[in-house]
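Field: COMPLEX_INPUT
Field: COMPONENT_COUNT = four
Field: RESIDUE_TOTAL = 1068
Field: MODE = joint
Values follow.
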Amino acid sequence: MQNLKDKVAAVFAASGEIAGAVARSFSQHGAKVYVTARNLDAVKTLAQEIKANGGSAEAAKVDALDEAGIDNFLRKVVADNGKLDVVFNGIGANYDEMGGRPPTTEATFAQFMAPLEKLCGSQFLTSRIAARYMMQTRSEGTILLLTAALSRSKLSNVAGITAASAAIEGLTRVMAAEWGGDGIKVICICPGALLETRRISGWINAAAQQYGMPVEQLVAQYKSLDILKTSPTLKQVGETAAFLASETGVAFNSHIVDVDCGKLNIL
Amino acid sequence: MQNLKDKVAAVFAASGEIAGAVARSFSQHGAKVYVTARNLDAVKTLAQEIKANGGSAEAAKVDALDEAGIDNFLRKVVADNGKLDVVFNGIGANYDEMGGRPPTTEATFAQFMAPLEKLCGSQFLTSRIAARYMMQTRSEGTILLLTAALSRSKLSNVAGITAASAAIEGLTRVMAAEWGGDGIKVICICPGALLETRRISGWINAAAQQYGMPVEQLVAQYKSLDILKTSPTLKQVGETAAFLASETGVAFNSHIVDVDCGKLNIL
Amino acid sequence: MQNLKDKVAAVFAASGEIAGAVARSFSQHGAKVYVTARNLDAVKTLAQEIKANGGSAEAAKVDALDEAGIDNFLRKVVADNGKLDVVFNGIGANYDEMGGRPPTTEATFAQFMAPLEKLCGSQFLTSRIAARYMMQTRSEGTILLLTAALSRSKLSNVAGITAASAAIEGLTRVMAAEWGGDGIKVICICPGALLETRRISGWINAAAQQYGMPVEQLVAQYKSLDILKTSPTLKQVGETAAFLASETGVAFNSHIVDVDCGKLNIL
Amino acid sequence: MQNLKDKVAAVFAASGEIAGAVARSFSQHGAKVYVTARNLDAVKTLAQEIKANGGSAEAAKVDALDEAGIDNFLRKVVADNGKLDVVFNGIGANYDEMGGRPPTTEATFAQFMAPLEKLCGSQFLTSRIAARYMMQTRSEGTILLLTAALSRSKLSNVAGITAASAAIEGLTRVMAAEWGGDGIKVICICPGALLETRRISGWINAAAQQYGMPVEQLVAQYKSLDILKTSPTLKQVGETAAFLASETGVAFNSHIVDVDCGKLNIL
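Field: COMPLEX_OUTPUT
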């Protein structure tokens, strides 16, 4: 349980549930964790919880889309620690921000581009700034990105977020290829629908409203494709991230890692 | 050779070599072809060539990133013909527009997003506006997009265009899923490096300069992964597009179609 | 419609419906077609039909699992024609031959291996013997194999045929890599479930019996994943094969070509 | 480091280096490990080493291709322990057994089928017999298979082993789909070339002889595609297997898990 002993980890968009679970796992494996978000209160609470559980954590207000803000933050982290070992960016998007789930014929250009800019753009920013500091400090660290299996699905009314997911996976491969010479690992985590999160339950509720279906029916639909009749947990995503950032995790470098417990429709 | 007899086809960014080849093939298979670009002179010349060869063509000035312009143009096409059978958007990007091939640690946010907005954004616009008119006129047509196998590669210094290629492939699947109920086919063409084009020869020249390698060596490098020791031709891409838009081509609906003659490093 | 003018094509297992459709398309595109099967009467009837329609065809009794028989047959074809341009092997398997659809815990070793030996083994034999004669005669021909998307699915009670389908796709890539230097193209066709064939209707009937479901419900289930609410036709498979064997088809060398009209669950 | 505390694990073909590493990791994570092979002395030595390091191990003579032998062995394991939690089959093949690396045009039918029967056949046997005992004892265990990325490569003169690798991956998906309802996880490990193993160094030596190249050049060729300029280690494969068999590993159910540290030519 001490896979990340003495490691320095930075988590972006840590007010979200996935990033929160990842930060908790990083800490439980021994890392010092910097948790950041636009919402400082949320990450302060998270840092306190981690410390209350015996971990080492610091909260900072960082907007994962603000290049200068990310840079200032990471500069301070490496100034204080002399290195940067792990980065995870858990940025996500709600349908609200994307104008709901309009048919692609109705979505505006701005609605379509929004997830590409927010999700893929943020992953680009945090990854590359982290890589620079890892190179500077010869940290040979691990950069973990987040995507969704939409990238390989044929679902309706999700053009922007599907394009963004696919783009993040492509970006992962380029960055892994570029930075491997400096010993930097780049891995992308692709969780299946985490039914316990507010986002997925929000999606399900929104879809239930849109299609006039009972929520239970949609949940059952989601689970009908789950081979183990259970969806992955936040804990499993966090533990997988900690594993990927560990010494053994290097074996997964450059890959898209599905954390879905097996779904009938995802290869 | 009359797979597209009486079909009405619109080609965007037709001043480019790939789109030009596609337009020529569409015409040779019997389609009436509308060739459009920001550069009206270029597509006028193309239309004249097509007509000189016995085809039916019309040129129009359309910016494939201008939503209103695309809409006005396609509205006129369906007003004149009562239908829209085939759409191809050949939009591409030069390294110049993307700030050369900077390392991902150096690329600016704007440089990274540029191909996503231009390539993926344009494919989004032309596809969805075309789909609306196809639905309106019950045309049950075919929408052809363009991508590059970068989406599935691990190459350095091509973060933006790789992300854009992957995004276009994801977008293809969503649109195919959404519009299939209206009989609309959505297929994405993925040509291997077309050594005969100005773009690829430009890339090779740029890379030769950047890495200080002789052009012949880079050409040989490109071809070293070609199973048949030959790269695909513009003619083959055009003929494939015409086939995909034909009655049989429906069998390829929703897929990414590699037109690369087989490469050792592309699955 | 004369994509294969003056070409010499050999079709194995041509008593099957897919191979029959392929032979018909080859002929309609101008090829001289040798149709072979263990059941000589069946391919004689096919050859007569092709000739009645103005094509050129010859029937021969060949067991696509008998190495010497295949060799003798192809030796004669190249002796008579000086070349061999196209080969297609349509070998398939019925659940009967595989012991029904037993759960994998119940399937015997022999039942599991049967489709690997029959389907993958036969494709190996006809492809490599054809390749030898293509090399000998510098034919630079096209070898077309047949697989099923089971290779990329997660379906129950189909272990052997799934393993065989995946194996055939791997084999395709090795052979393409090996023989490309001799100008030989190797391409694998992967048709979606062809509801009009006896085999698929047989499968549906068998599954209906096994699970106690009405046939209509199973057909609807099959189609529920078809984006265009229609399954591909034998004609489309035949025309695609003819296209792949044509001058343009070289662009598809080494690939697995899905002919399924788009399915929600197949990437 | 106690991910597998109180777990009962059976390892087949444990005289091989990969299976040996997996058995060691299973033990280090707290599992009781049964190590089996045709060569009883080899696994006795392994068991002694594990016990000398404080682990719990038992050696048994089992031929991973002998259905009755596997059945008798696993019956005894569940009789003694009341359950079966983890199975790994490390069966491999040497070029010697496959007749060297003959061109596919020269390989005999038997040479081609050999790896399919041995590798894929053995994985089928151990997996399904294990699944039966897991079902009987409601063990909700994990079955780990072994493949090679040849399945997704285009390499020459490796038809049989490529087909076998692809077949094993297809088989993994079917078994995962079938047994998930019983809580059984099925996951396939795909290590990159492990340069430290006798098998890969043997392959490299054989290839060096065949092509008349210095060994160092071939090693450099192997590594030239390694993003991190290092190939994965046996230890990493073992630790990954232990992780996949752990509580968190369930998240990887049904997937092919690459353990290659990132290769430029493997997606």
